[in-house]
Design brief:
Layout: H1 2-21, E1 26-31, E2 34-42, E3 51-61, H2 64-87
Antiparallel strand pairs: 1-2, 2-3
Helix pairs in contact: 1-2
């Protein structure tokens, strides 16, 4: 089990390196038996304006396949977040 845990940490670290190299402002994090993403996003309306760092649970199990899936989700969120910052509104595409 410890070997699996260490291997998952390495896979998450490698995925975070790829996300950083691609300019995606989102990172992955092991949280319990699942994978979460960490991103700085606009605050919830009830908390005022500005931005805040959030840990967002994806409900994806911490497995080799889960890390790959979470990395794809991080890319999606990173792209969406860039649209929000650069265009000043939320993209409501198909």
């Amino acid at each position: 089990m410890a070997v699996d845990s260490e291997l998952l940490k390495v896979r998450v670290s490698e995925a975070n390196g790829r996300l950083k190299a691609a300019g995606v402002p989102v990172r992955l994090k092991l949280k319990g038996g699942n994978i979460a993403i960490v991103a700085t996003l606009p605050k919830k309306p009830e908390h005022g304006t500005g931005r805040k760092q959030y840990d967002i649970s994806l409900g994806i199990p911490a497995t080799k396949t889960g890390v790959a899936r979470a990395e794809r989700e991080a890319h999606k969120l990173g792209l969406h977040g860039q649209r929000v910052v650069h265009l000043g509104h939320v993209h409501r595409g198909s």
